[in-house]
Design goal:
mainly alpha
Amino acid sequence: MGISRIAPEHAERVIGTIRRECLDHVMVFNEADLHRHMKSFVPYDHESRTHLWLAKDTPEPRPAHSLELGPFVAISSVGGLHHPYERRAT
């Protein structure tokens, strides 16, 4: 089994997303710092951020929240750069 080839346009899109939504807003001082930022961005990207190639869904399935669950609450992610919203019981 070989390594699958990634289309250049897909790689460019992923790198652009990482740059625009994460790295343009933080200061990276060294490789360990970059690793820490990327480690916090990947869960946000897979669990909260919608993707056009998935018809504006996320790679990880999201549950539908019922109205009875409570009001919307902002959840801080990627060190406060992004705030996905969820319904939370009061």
